Amino acid sequence: MARQEIDLTTPQPNGKMGEPTxxxxxxxxxxxxxxxxxxxxxxxxxxGNINGTVILTPNGTDTVPSGGGVxxxxxxxxxxxxxxxxxxxxxxxxxxxxxxxxxxxRSVDDNTQGSIRFQGSSNGIFGSGIVFGSSGNDRWxxxxxxxxxxxxxxxxxxxxxSRRASVVFSATGSINTSDARDKTSLKxxxxxxxxxxxxxxxxxxxxxxxxxxxxxxxxxxxxxxxTVQKAINILESNGLNPFDYAFICHDExxxxxxxxxKYGFRVDQLNLFITAGINARLKRLEDIILDK
Length: 292
Description:
CATH topology of the largest domain: Arc Repressor Mutant, subunit A
Strand content: 15-25%
Number of domains: 3
Number of helices: 5
Order of helices and strands: HEEEEEEEEHEHEHEEH
Structural class: alpha+beta
CATH class of the largest domain: Mainly Alpha
Low-confidence stretches: 58-83
Strand order of the largest sheet: 4-5-6-7-8
């Protein structure tokens, strides 16, 4: 409804100025009937709804308030047991308002369970990037130059035994720590380890994943490798404990009353173990040739 203006200046036949009282109040009723629902649902200190773009300024003005402080914005859904959002947009520091970190966190029973922080400063390992956290601690972040990094060194995994990533796309391979300052001195593989390495290499072949066969049939693609169980059998047959070697992996977990487990390889270390066996075989052949 367009705004209805009440006439206050036009002379009436009775000598009074402005329109009759009844028509004036009719306009008031019509306009308040439209405005009342908007006012009833407006954002308040303890609730209400708001739609469209909202622009907030500290203390309702761009000027610096005398007392200083922080401008918090709380938003709570009206259904029980849902997330609460806290945005901190400005802080009062060194005589003026300045933009600061914006933090969005999930709160349950007033304990911080998860957070996303949009940093306004360039301090720390993430610079002015984005930080993701849980249980009150920073976990991962995107730096100001776009790198995705953990908040602390050698602390967090990407995926788990029960929640695996299907494929990792990368322009180059991963870089693994191989600094001599972080390792014990190297030990030459024993004869039993060399024999196990050669036998494992002999088991390499082509296979298809059952899930892929079920989904794609004969068009399922072939992979190259062997099973962890076979490698375990070979190591044990050579008097070796398979779980002394980090290339053998076995994870267990449970959901409710059900238990699950999965075997896996650290393929880079398995390949080097096999390479050591190949090198030993070559050396044996060279020794035989040279003896002749």
